[in-house]
């Protein structure tokens, strides 16, 4: 028979001891501090997301130029990037925004997060023959320490 029942208690001891409860609360507190520290550092995730969207946007511009037979301009500056097409395939000016493939009613552009730095500022023109106009050699772009290369002769966008 249980020792507690022998001492006159009608119910056996159940639940956690005070020491066990304190230990669990301390562990939860430590885990909370670590998790909140990671949640507060979202700038790195935003920066990586913007970099990946930039690579994908430039690749889309190259493929759109080849598929449509019309040139596509990518305007890259410190505020972000935008894709443009001309009124016609023979147009020298780029005034029509390329539509976002995911949201067809929106222009395909991305705004850089406040923490981002983009260098250099350039206007690239992807031609239907896969070459890139506006650069004399392969162009390296740096976005918050991450690099991508646009290859002039093939239009390939390579994330490093």
Total of domains: 2
- The proportion of strand residues reads 15-25%
What is the C-alpha radius of gyration, as a whole number of Å? 29 Å
Stretches where pLDDT is under 50 for at least 5 consecutive residues are none
What is the H/E string? HHHEEEEEEEEEE
What overall geometry do the principal axes of the alpha carbons give?
A: elongated
**CATH fold-type name of the largest domain:** minor pseudopilin epsh fold
Query: Distance between the terminal alpha carbons, to the nearest Å?
Result: 71 Å
Number of helices: 3
Alpha-beta classification:
alpha+beta
CATH architecture of the largest domain: 3-Layer(bab) Sandwich
Mean pLDDT: 87
Indicate the percent of residues in helices. 25-40%
**Quick one: CATH class of the largest domain?**
Alpha Beta
CATH superfamily of the largest domain: minor pseudopilin epsh domain
Instruction: Work out the number of β strands.
Output: 10
Largest sheet descriptor:
6 strands, antiparallel
Written overview of the protein:
The chain has about 160 residues and is an alpha+beta fold. It has 2 domains: about 5-40, no CATH class; about 45-160, minor pseudopilin epsh domain (minor pseudopilin epsh fold), CATH 3.55.40. It is built from 3 helices and 10 strands; from the N terminus they run αααββββββββββ. It has helices at about 5, 20-40, 45-70, and strands at about 70-75, 80-85, 95, 110, 120, 120-125, 130-135, 140-145, 145-150, 155-160. The strands form 2 sheets. Strands 1, 2, 3, 4, 6 and 7 form a 6-stranded antiparallel β-sheet that branches. A hairpin with a 2-residue loop joins strand 1 (about 70-75) and strand 2 (about 80-85). The longest helix has 26 residues, at about 45-70. The mean pLDDT is about 85.
């Amino acid at each position: 028979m249980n020792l507690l029942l022998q001492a006159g208690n009608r119910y056996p001891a159940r639940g956690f001891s005070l020491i066990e409860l304190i230990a669990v609360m301390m562990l939860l507190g430590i885990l909370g501090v670590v998790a909140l520290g990671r949640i507060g550092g979202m700038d790195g995730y935003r920066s990586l997301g913007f970099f990946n969207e930039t690579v994908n946007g430039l690749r889309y511009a190259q493929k759109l130029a080849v598929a449509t037979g019309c040139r596509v301009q990518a305007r890259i500056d410190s505020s972000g990037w935008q894709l443009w097409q001309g009124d016609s395939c023979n147009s020298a000016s780029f005034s029509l925004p390329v539509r976002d493939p995911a949201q067809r009613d929106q222009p395909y552009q991305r705004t850089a997060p406040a923490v981002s730095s983009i260098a250099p500022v350039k206007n690239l023109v992807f031609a239907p023959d896969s070459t890139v106009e506006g650069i004399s050699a392969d162009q390296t772009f740096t976005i918050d320490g991450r690099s991508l290369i646009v290859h002039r002769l093939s239009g390939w966008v390579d994330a490093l």
